[in-house]
Write a sequence for this structure.
């Protein structure tokens, strides 16, 4: 298939592009390149791509494409809270526009990167399935719910949106993110000897390795239409349904000499969800996640040591919010986060 991969220069996209290419697909990227230089280790070999803002996509970008994998977004809860209006412009309106253009161009499958954050304050220790009520607690998660609703309305006999509700990702990607929980805690452990838990540690936070998420998208791309058409899927594995306190313990074990410090300074985090991932395994037989949290913590610690992660990079280069603030201060993006030429 010829696959348009938006967000190909992000954390997940940089891992997903080679997985798709290895499966025999022709990958074309599309990204504004906001984090293209945020690389830890050898520079990745990106597929050919369009450097364009999602809000400026035209019919030309989707012409001749068989499927779209749509990752590009302001990609986490704190970012969304920084600028809720921009989050809705980029994550919601521009995503729906892209989907309409794709449908009009005859694209048959549209895999949308949603999130388990849509369950928000699900609470409790029971497993949350795809039919559970959606309780987003941030503009980021709300934007994902709105896209799912609007894409569902576009589904028809030729156009199949698929809603991939990913667990929080972890693991090494050349375009590292240090602002997601496992990657963050491993970095702190190595740089300071402390595994700092800012909440009270009790929230459930399902995790999935970036490579497993990439394999799930690759599997959804070629699954029979009737198995995935207009359906939502939780992407991850029950073995990685962990509390923040358990994640911290795994990190302390993976980084010798580090100790868990629970500061609780952020108070109780309302986001807590323990997730049932069985629907995707049933719909796409043969798929399962391969990585555990412990293996991911060891992989990250190795990568951080090998590539010489510094505190400066950890806090600035690999933290999405800090990168955008710095770009705004430097004038390389305007106040709508459009890159200036
Ligand atoms: N990483 C996770 O834990 C996680 C979990 C669930 C869902 N997701 C979703 O997966 C997708 C990818 O996440 P990620 O971790 O790779 O994030 P990321 O921030 O590393 O990558 C996002 C990419 O989108 C691009 N982008 C942002 N705004 C754009 C715009 N206006 N025009 C064009 N490109 C733009 C950025 O340049 C970046 O390359 C996102 O939609 C995110 O919401 C991520």
């Amino acid at each position: 298939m010829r696959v348009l991969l938006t967000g190909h220069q992000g954390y997940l996209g940089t891992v997903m592009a080679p997985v798709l290419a290895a499966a025999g697909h022709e990958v074309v990227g599309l990204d504004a390149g906001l984090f293209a230089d945020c690389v830890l280790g050898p520079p990745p070999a990106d597929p050919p791509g369009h450097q364009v803002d999602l809000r400026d996509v035209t019919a030309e970008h989707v012409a001749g494409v068989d499927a779209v994998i749509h990752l590009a977004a302001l990609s986490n809860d704190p970012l969304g809270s920084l600028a809720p209006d921009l989050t809705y412009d980029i994550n919601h309106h521009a995503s729906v526009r892209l989907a309409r253009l794709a449908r009009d161009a005859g694209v048959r499958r549209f895999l949308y990167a949603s999130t388990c954050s849509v369950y928000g304050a699900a609470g409790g220790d029971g497993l949350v399935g795809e039919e559970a009520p959606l309780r987003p607690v941030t503009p980021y998660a709300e934007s994902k719910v709105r896209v799912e609703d609007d894409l569902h309305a576009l589904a028809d006999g030729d156009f199949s949106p698929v809603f991939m509700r990913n667990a929080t990702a972890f693991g090494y990607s050349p375009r590292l993110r240090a602002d997601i929980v496992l990657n963050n805690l491993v970095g702190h452990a190595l740089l300071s000897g402390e595994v700092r838990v800012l909440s009270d540690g009790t929230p459930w936070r399902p995790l999935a390795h970036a490579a497993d998420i990439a394999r799930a998208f690759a599997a959804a791309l070629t699954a029979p239409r009737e198995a995935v058409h207009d359906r939502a899927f939780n992407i991850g594995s029950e073995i990685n349904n962990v509390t923040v306190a358990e994640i911290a313990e795994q990190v302390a074990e993976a980084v010798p000499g580090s100790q868990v410090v629970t500061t609780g300074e952020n108070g109780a985090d309302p986001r807590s969800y323990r997730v049932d991932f069985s629907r995707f395994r049933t719909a796409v037989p043969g798929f399962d996640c391969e990585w555990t949290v412990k293996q991911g913590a060891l992989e990250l610690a190795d990568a951080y040591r090998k590539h010489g992660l510094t505190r400066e990079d950890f806090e600035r280069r690999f933290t999405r919010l800090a990168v955008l603030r710095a770009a705004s201060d430097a004038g390389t993006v305007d106040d709508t986060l459009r890159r200036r030429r």
